[in-house]
Amino acid sequence: MADDISKERVMHVADLARLHITDEEAEKLAEELRSIIKHAEQLKELDTTNVEPTTHVIQLENVMRKDEPRTDWITQEEALKNAPDHKDGQFRVPSILSE
Predict the structure, then answer these.
(1) Burial, 21: exposed, middle or buried (Cβ in 10 Å; 0-12, 13-18, 19+)?
(2) What Enzyme Commission number(s) does the record list for this chain (predicted)?
């Protein structure tokens, strides 16, 4: 599979991506890509029969608090106490939409 990567193929992909690369750059990229693919192909030789598939190498867990009902909430009057302007139990703010 690594042998499939030629300078011409790199030039074609660069053209599709609208990238301008020189012949020297294309040859260097082709060599680097072949090297990467050869290295990845070595991983096929590993015995992974007893390895459990993972999506993350580090176990992730939720760090949020439990969502529990509370009874010690402030009242509507306490919430509006320091509001510069309020009406009918709601905060009043300047309009930001013009007609």
Answers:
(1) middle
(2) 6.3.5.-
